[in-house]
Amino acid sequence: MAETTIEWTATPGSDGTMHQGFTLNPWIGCERVDAMCDLCYADVGSRRLAAQHHLKLWDEGSSRYQTKDPWGKLVTWNRRAEKLGVRLKVFCASYSDWAEDRPELVAPRQRLFDTIVDTPWLDLLLLTKRPQNINRLVEATKHVDVLTQNVWLGTSVGTKPSLERAVQLVRSHESVHKFLSMEPLLDPTFDLDPLVCQHCWGLEWQVGDDDATPFCPECETEMVSGAILDPLNGGIDWLIIGGESGGSKEKFARPLHLAAARQVMAQAKEAGVPVFFKQMGRRIIGDSEGFEVNHWLIGDGVDPLDWKLEWVPPWLGPNAGKKPENAIGFTLFDGHGGDPADWAPEFRVREYPEAVVP
Ligand code: SF4
Known about the structure:
The protein is an alpha/beta fold. Helix content is 20%, strand content 20%. The longest helix has 15 residues, at 70-84. It is globular and about 60 Å long. It starts with 10 loop residues before the first strand and ends in a 26-residue tail after the last strand. The model has no long low-confidence stretch (mean pLDDT 90). It binds iron/sulfur cluster. Iron/sulfur cluster binds at residues 30, 32-33, 37, 40, 42, 96-97, 129.
C-alpha cells in the first residue's frame, strides 16, 4: 500500500502538475465473480504472501489477510493532501473487493468508513464487482452521508452480462462521482447505452406489436435509453477503458476489440462523460492504422491459443507496410499496451471528471 503508478488515480493540479494517487488494501483475498476475473493479477501477486502465512487467499475455501495499519496510512496521506492543498485519490482496493460480504470483513469495513469520514482531503475510489451489496453494506456502517463527501463509487464492466453491474451502480446511493472500470473490455461489440426499464431496471426487452415500442417483459413498462450514462441523474460520469494484460502460455490475455472501444468512447462523448483510456492490453483486434505495431496477430478463429505472432522489426517502421493478409490484429511494444505514444491518436484520451470540493 503506497503511492501507486495506476495513472487514473493521479490528480491534475491547477498548475498542470500531476499528483500521484495511492492504493489502499485493508485486506487481501477475494473470490472470483465472473469471466472478467479470470486473469486476476491480485491472485497471482499475493501468492508469496499466502505461502508465507500458510493461507489460501483466493476463491472457494479462502480466508482474508488483514493488512497492518491501513488506517494510519490514510491519515498520513490526508495530511499530505491538506498540506499540498490538493485533493488526492486513493484506489480501494487492488488486492480485494471492498464490497465482498463476509462476516470477518464487517469490522474492517466499518473502520474503513470511519476513517474516510476523518480524511476529508482524500477521495476514496471504491471499486467493486459486487455493486448489488453497496447500499446494504454502506448503510450498515451508518456512514451513507460520507458517500457524497469524498467517495467515488465504481464497478467493473467489460462483458454483456456484466452490464447489469452498471445498472446496479446507478441504483446505488449517490456518491461524489460514479465510474465504470471497463478494464478489461472483453466484448467485441459493446453497448453502454442499452434500453433499460426505469420501473424494474431490467435490461431484457421485447418489441411491441407495432414493432416500434420495446417493452420490459417483467413489468410491461416501455424501455428507455440514456439511463446508464446520465451524469446529471445519478448515472455514470467517468469511464476508464483498458485491454487485458498479464496471462501465461496456457491462459492468454484476451484481446481488446477496437470497434468496441470506439463505440463506448463515442457513447461517452455523446453523453458528455469523460473517458480515461488506460491501456490497450496485450493483444488488439482491429485496424492498425496509426499504431506502432510490434507483432501481427495471425489467426482465423476466436481462440487466442490458436493465434500466432509475427514480429515486425522496429527498423522497418510502424506497420512496416507489410501487413500479412491473414492478420486479425496486432500487439504493441509495451507489454501492457500502456504507452499512449504507440496508440492511434483517437485513443489518446485521458480525461477526469470535474473536481468537486465538498
Ligand atoms: S473481484 Fe477483483 S480482486 Fe476479486 S477475483 Fe475478481 S478481479 Fe480479483
